């Protein structure tokens, strides 16, 4: 199967197919078209012809087995409610392609991130259906996002070769690429404190969540009282971010600084502030991920950047090394987040912008 044949089935040019398969941040005409191209490639078990490429370069390599890789995304649905996972998935898809592997399937399984379902879920049945989706050939599994421990143990038994890409550690249950959510939160909340904020809110998941623990620890370390009214647990979507800000706007107890566990929640908050821009309450907002639209907000969103390209690349390298017998013990690769100081955070009591817009 060639790129030309995929292009014919998708109704696009071979150049467009090549860009989609090889470039994670390529701006396709629509997300639907990008998904269509990848689905066709998966259905046809497409992989680049490594032998042909090496002949052009004058290289001759020994034959290597083509590896089939399955991916599950645990913290968002197929509608892409959190762009961070979509962007990370795009990196992993392209890395699979560039390493001459076949992406057998991408499954969106939010149930794996919900610890509350542990006692009632038949994990063997769920995982059995996953393996059916991948077909007879599946050499390895990449888990994108948080996974509760019971499900993780069942996945480990079903898939000898697997790796987690996450902000919440698996505590060495399996190989993992980690950008520690605890440290991310410490960085974000610490930035608000450095600007003089002491009434600091948190919006995001709380149950067994590293970012929430980082928020709690940083406040306690700085002798700042944790106010229950300043903590709102949400599903971390744009809509719920909007609703959280509405809730605070209607309250007489409002934080001056807010840490959102992810960018898309913060985007919803900024949209709410734009609609209610005549109100006196204008908090500083900081988040984490640094998704593509974080710089398109007004003011631009201050956030902690997670190195998605490195996370995706190292995830596949680590998985392939285990598949090929390169290592036996559990390996963790930890990557650092980077504070991106923009305009949505200012010293307490100050406001340098007159309106909010996206």
Report on the structure:
With 358 residues, the chain is α/β, with parallel strands linked by helices. It is 40% helix and 15% strand. It contains 12 helices and 12 strands. It has helices spanning 3-10, 14-22, 31-43, 50-57, 83-98, 123-134, 149-158, 181-194, 210-221, 238-249, 263-275, 308-323; strands at residues 68-73, 102-108, 140-144, 162-166, 175-178, 200-204, 231-233, 257-260, 284-289, 302-305, 332-334, 338-340. The strands form 2 sheets. Strands 2-1-3-4-5-11 form a 6-stranded parallel beta sheet, sandwiched between helices. A 6-stranded mixed beta sheet has the order 7-6-8-9-10-12, with helices on both faces. Helix 5 (83-98) links the parallel strand 1 and strand 2 (102-108). Helix 5 crosses helix 12. The longest helix has 16 residues, at 83-98. The protein is globular, with a radius of gyration of 22 Å. Mean pLDDT is 86; it is low at 50-63 and 352-358.
Return the string of H and E elements.
HHHHEHEHEHEEHEHEHEHEEHEE
**Helix fraction bin:** 25-40%
Number of strands: 12
The whole-angstrom Rg is: 22 Å
Low-confidence stretches: 50-63, 352-358
Residue-averaged pLDDT: 86
How many strands, what sense, and barrel or not for the largest sheet? Answer: 6 strands, parallel
Globally, the shape reads: globular
Strand % is 15-25%
Helix tally equals: 12
Strand line-up of the largest beta sheet: 2-1-3-4-5-11
Structural class by sheet pairing and helices: alpha/beta
Report how far the terminal alpha carbons are from each other.
42 Å
Nutshell version of this structure?
This protein is of the alpha/beta class.
């Amino acid at each position: 199967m060639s790129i030309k044949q995929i292009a014919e089935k998708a109704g696009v040019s071979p150049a467009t197919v090549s860009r989609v398969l090889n470039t994670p941040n390529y701006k396709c005409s629509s997300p639907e078209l990008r998904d269509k191209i990848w689905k066709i490639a998966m259905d046809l078990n497409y992989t680049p012809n490594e032998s042909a490429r090496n002949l052009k370069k004058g290289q001759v390599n020994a034959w290597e087995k083509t590896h089939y890789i399955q991916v599950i995304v645990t913290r968002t649905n197929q509608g892409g409610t959190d762009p961070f996972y979509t962007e990370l998935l795009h990196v992993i898809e392209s890395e699979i392609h560039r390493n001459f592997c076949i992406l057998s399937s991408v499954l969106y399984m939010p149930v794996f991130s919900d610890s509350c379902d542990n006692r009632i879920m038949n994990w063997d049945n769920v995982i059995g259906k996953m393996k059916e989706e991948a077909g007879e050939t599946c050499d390895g599994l990449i888990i994108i996002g948080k996974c509760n421990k019971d499900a993780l143990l069942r996945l480990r038994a079903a898939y000898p070769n697997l790796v987690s890409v996450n902000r919440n550690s698996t505590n060495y249950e399996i190989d993992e690429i980690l950008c520690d959510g605890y440290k991310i939160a410490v960085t974000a909340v610490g930035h608000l404190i450095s600007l003089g904020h002491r009434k600091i809110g948190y919006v995001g998941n709380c149950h067994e969540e590293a970012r929430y623990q980082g928020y709690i620890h940083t406040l306690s370390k700085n002798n700042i009282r944790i106010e229950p009214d300043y903590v709102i647990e949400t599903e971390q979507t744009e809509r719920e971010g909007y609703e959280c800000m509405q809730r605070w706007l209607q309250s007489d107890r409002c934080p001056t600084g807010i840490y959102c566990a992810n960018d898309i929640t913060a985007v919803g908050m900024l949209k709410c502030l734009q609609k209610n821009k005549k109100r006196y309450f204008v908090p500083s907002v900081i988040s984490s991920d640094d998704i593509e639209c974080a710089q398109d907000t007004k003011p631009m969103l201050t956030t902690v950047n997670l190195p998605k390209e490195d996370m995706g690349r190292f995830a596949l390298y680590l998985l392939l090394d285990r598949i090929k017998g390169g290592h036996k013990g559990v390996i963790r690769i930890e990557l650092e987040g980077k504070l991106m100081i923009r305009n949505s955070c200012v010293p307490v009591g100050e406001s340098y912008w007159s309106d909010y817009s996206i």
